[in-house]
Amino acid sequence: MREPHHTFIIAEAGVNHNGDVNTAIRLIDAAKEAGADAVKFQTFKAENLVTREAPKAKYQKSTTGSGNQFDMLKALELSFNDHLILENYCDEKKIKFLSTPFDFESVDLLEKIGVEFYKTSSGDLTNTPLLAYIAKQGKPMIVSTGMANLGEVESAVEAMKQTGNDQISLLHCTSNYPTAMEDVNLNAMITLRNAFMLPIGYSDHTLGIEVPIAAVALGAEIIEKHLTLDKKMEGPDHQASLEPNELKKMIKSIRNIEQSFGDGIKSCQTSEENTKSVARKSIVARYDLKKGDKLTLSNLDFKRPGSGVSPRYINLVINRRIVRDIKQDERITFDLLE
After folding, report:
1. Which residues contact 84 (CB under 8 A, 6 or more apart)?
2. Pairing with 171, which of 45, 134, 156, 299 sits 20 to 30 Å away (CA)?
3. 252 and 296 together in one domain
4. Residues in domain AFP-like (predicted)?
């Protein structure tokens, strides 16, 4: 799923289409234009996802007002035909279609469409029956771990691996919308990698673009970030999402960071060669010297440019005599020495 030094970037359209397939298509266009590798939606039936009395989360109340989750989610469902339209449009635009299933029926729907891999939500990390059902499809899984402790992640990983599917990537996440910087705990992503020896990434709910960029620098192989056409639109997730120009800026920054990784070999870069010749120093005569004079630390100096003998070889120069007169600041070379 990941090329060398290429972070897999998911534009999380989620439910920011507000139940309208044409808005969803515009989100696909925006994700493609921004340079994302995949655009992700959410697949669910409200009847299978929540009870009719399930309360809204605090952030959902602040963005959508009072009421219950059922009514809110029912208005955000996409039909099977909508999914086909969106998957076909993604194929046409050459961007990967991805959706998070929230129930068994939704997994079956995505299987009919022929999705290449799955993304699961933080809310379902402890829903091991659903995780196992998805894992049995035999496809790669990207698993968000918001709200979880390490033991809960371990149980989830075990439930998936017991099906014979070990194609698992773990995303660190903080499930608050938006997430305050002090709650990001980005080092927990490293903890996940060390604990499970699986590919890791980061699903971001902060308001800016800095944390996903930092996550890539720390080794994230996958980045997920919410996308909206307009943060002022009605709906639960728009305010904690990026608008298209912001997503494009984030992705450009990540691609720049990737280029900076290099091969890890410490060496002088070709672009440094000119600077090297003028910035480094050579051993030079501190003042005019006569043929036969012995070179010492008192009659030598170290000055730019670096086209003579390097100061690192001073022990090969001192206490040797010169074979001709040398002018002040003249660079010492080995052919001047007895």
Report:
1. 113
2. 45
3. no
4. 282-338
pLDDT tens digits in sequence order for the chain, 338 residues long: 444 589 999 999 999 999 999 999 999 999 999 999 999 999 998 888 889 888 877 877 777 777 888 888 888 899 999 999 999 999 999 999 999 999 999 999 999 999 999 999 999 999 999 999 999 999 999 999 999 999 999 999 999 999 999 999 999 999 998 999 999 999 999 999 999 999 999 999 999 999 999 999 999 999 999 999 999 898 778 888 999 999 999 999 999 999 999 889 999 999 999 999 999 999 999 999 999 999 999 999 999 999 999 999 999 999 999 999 999 999 999 999 99
Structure tokens at 143: 């698993």
Contact assessment for residue 102 and residue 43, using Cβ atoms and an 8 Å cutoff: yes
**Cβ atoms of 94 and 39 closer than 8 Å:** no
Residues 206 and 326 in one domain: no
- Structural domain includes residue 82: yes
Q: 57: alpha, beta or left, given left = phi > 0 and alpha = psi -120 to 50?
A: beta
Place of tokens 């001047």: 336
Q: Are residues 242 and 285 in the same domain?
A: no
This model's pTM is above 0.90: no
Extract the tokens encoding 154: 């371990």
Task: Give, for 195, the enclosing helix (H) or strand (E).
Answer: helix 187-196
Distance CA 250, CA 224 (A): 11
Length of the chain (residues): 338
Nearest-Å Rg of the Cα atoms of the chain is 30
Calculate the CA dihedral of residues 288, 293, 295, 300 and round it to 10 degrees: -10
My answer on whether 136 and 83 are in the same domain is yes
CATH value at residue 329: 3.90.1210.10
